[in-house]
Specification:
Blueprint: H1 5-8, H2 12-20, E1 25-26, H3 27-37, H4 46-58, E2 62-66, E3 76-80, H5 82-110
Antiparallel strand pairs: 1-3, 2-3
């Protein structure tokens, strides 16, 4: 089941930060990784990814650098910063609270 854009809109930055917390990556590969982990349920468009990269970099949550071009095309890599790690921890705590609240609301409706 593909997730709706409305559901994901508020979590795009958090999803990217979480994936970068595992190691530096470039946009195309990061998009493939997200699709793979979500079993095809989430496929981020390039425009969405690169808009988020610019927003996260401007906020100081990630940094970018050019990779080595010896293995083919030169790629721009992204890395999470210490500020990005802090943001990710806050986002993950907020997500846990949101999941708990939604569970309560949906369980209440079923009674």
């Amino acid at each position: 089941m593909a997730l709706s854009a409305d559901i994901l809109r508020g979590y795009t930055d958090s999803i990217i930060l979480k994936q970068l917390s595992h190691g530096d990556n470039y946009g195309y590969e990061l998009g493939k990784q997200i699709a793979l982990i979500s079993q095809g349920g989430l496929e981020m468009k390039e425009a969405t990814l690169y808009t988020a990269f610019r927003r996260l970099e401007a906020a100081g949550h990630i940094r970018s650098y050019w990779g080595d071009a010896q293995a083919g095309a030169r790629r721009r890599y992204y890395a999470i910063t210490p500020e990005g790690q802090e943001r990710l921890q806050r986002d993950m705590a907020n997500w846990q609270e949101t999941k708990q609240m939604l569970s309560l609301l949906f369980e209440e409706e079923e009674k």
